[in-house]
Predict the 3D structure of the following.
Amino acid sequence: MTVEDKNQEEPKAEETPVEEPKAEETPAEEPKAEETPAEEPKAEETPVEEPKAEETPAEEPKAEEILDYLGKVPSNNSIDSFSSGDTVILNLLIKEGDRERVQSFQGNVIRGSHINGNKVLPGKTFTVRRISSGVGVERTVPISSPSIESVKVIRKGKVRKSKLYYLRDLTGKKARIKEAR
């Protein structure tokens, strides 16, 4: 009986794989039919993209227009010159409904710099970091922001890098920045 049971199991195993390839062949034929129409619209899309490429250079602003715009950007004279590693007090105007108040934020500049006399670019930002109640707090502010009332430098720091992201991992005395002489 054991031999008969094995013979009965083997044909069943053979029947199952025979049915599966038939099921696989049918879906395989359908995507082939779908691929052919998909190729035709691609040929139609190519000519549509070419005029877009021609229009793009015409829309780019000229160098003169960019310089005129940068000359019109208002500069805030109450911002002292600073660089990475400096300790600054950042005074921001905060609007709460109808009222306005000034909020001070003192900390180390970990990214960005500003030199008085240079034009303030619209997209230029700087980041100030401080430790408040044992938690690191960072504020990233655009230099050309109208909400900046003033930036005062308290202490010049001596650092070798322009981006001091490594300070995020340090605590206590290790996070101190030496003062420049």
Remarks:
- The helical segments are 2-59, 63-72.
